[in-house]
Amino acid sequence: xxxxxxxxxxxxxxxxxxxxxxxxxxxxxxxxxxxxxxxxxxxxxxxxxxxxxxxxxxxxxxxxxxxxxxxxxxxxxxxxxxxxxxxxxxxxxxxxxxxxxxxxxxxxxxxxxxxxxxxxxxxxxxxxxxxxxxxxxxxxxxxxxxxxxxxxxxxxxxxxxxxxxxxxxxxxxxxxxxxxxxxxxxxxxxxxxxxxxxxxxxxxxxxxxxxxxxxxxxxxxxxxxxxxxxxxxxxxxxxxxxxxxxxxxxxxxxxxxxxxxxxxxxxxxxxxxxxxxxxxxxxxxxxxxxxxxxxxxxxxxxxxxxxxxxxxxxxxxxxxxxxxxxxxxxxxxxxxxxxxxxxxxxxxxxxxxxxxxxxxxxxxxxxxxxxxxxxxxxxxxxxxxxxxxxxxxxxxxxxxxxxxxxxxxxxxxxxxxxxxxxxxxxxxxxxxxxxxxxxxxxxxxxxxxxxxxxxxx
Length: 457
Ligand SMILES: Cc1cc2nc3c(=O)[nH]c(=O)nc-3n(C[C@H](O)[C@H](O)[C@H](O)COP(=O)(O)OP(=O)(O)OC[C@H]3O[C@@H](n4cnc5c(N)ncnc54)[C@H](O)[C@@H]3O)c2cc1C
Hints:
Number of strands: 18
CATH architecture of the largest domain: 3-Layer(aba) Sandwich
Bound molecules: flavin-adenine dinucleotide
């Protein structure tokens, strides 16, 4: 059977219009935001509108052994949603209904294409919020957040995506529908398939619905401070001191001078371009004032040269807006490789020191920003051009950053996922026994290896 005839067979099983073969439309679905990962030319695009579309696509792909790349909004930073040659790109963006807001049980049931921030907007009138808030919360889907176990700014206090999931509906590689978890806060019935699916990067199943926990909004606006440091390691030391003190920031974000300047070049916000590092912290508890006071003492003792408590909500929001712009701003400045390393929080200063030394040694400028309170930083390699020599030096730089994190007891990816970009470095983190278990789990869920092959591990 020809590919065209075979695709006709798929079209008859799908909702009208779900199958797209027009190259000019498919082009917009070939890449995520990891621009340097090479993209293949897909056989077709399926824009699913319901679980049945996903079931039909997976059954068809299973029968024909056609690779499938699940896709949310394509904001991923590790090439996990980048198209493979001859694949079906399975977009979930049109499955975007918030099916239920259950105020009594503080949960929502959503489809995978719902934009993260829309969940927050849906529950806000009920005095609730959805905590995991990646920097991309206005543009990324909950399906992508689940598949990458996305983190975010508030995760230092409220946990990552994994901590907010109660249950999932997942279409398996052969088209069967798996239900995991439920609506209860606790359940130990069977293996924890929910947690297995979260962070599986589209390699074990396609998430078609999720039951998520939401929380009561804190009773008052958070108290915000910003501290400026003359060196990055000093800012890292302040973070370690805050954590060591047992304080509970609801946000603790760091950006370096290169990031501050990229933001100012992108959109003028009057940040201090000369600061080596800015640390932005918040507390939203009933003793927020005391917590922030204690955090600023930690900053002062670590050598902060300026500490300011924001005097208004507008000022605090401007600081957060600046932080949220960091990714877009650095990407707008030219080609980037965005690293995602994490270290135990007591080792943050060592990581920042190591990143500075690596950049000086390889000559690839690095702008560093990240979720300092989680020990999760994004050293962003700013490539001056795409010459083969520059690319080789950039990948060497990225590998050295990963190795530095591992040497400090850390991880090569705190929240973006392994995707295609970090596969070669994974063996440095997980051992052969773990890899063998990964292969066994993959074989059980996807015996024909059609789900996002070559991604994750
Ligand atoms: C400016 C900017 C800021 C960012 N900030 C953060 C941040 O603070 N924290 C963070 O964690 N990430 C961040 N990211 C990265 C990215 O937004 C997240 O990884 C996000 O979770 C991806 O969601 P998406 O809908 O774009 O997924 P995609 O990029 O489309 O896909 C990501 C992965 O999930 C899989 N996938 C998608 N949907 C499904 C599904 N329904 N079922 C199974 N698999 C699926 C894909 O195959 C792929 O492997 C940022 C990105 C940008 C551009």
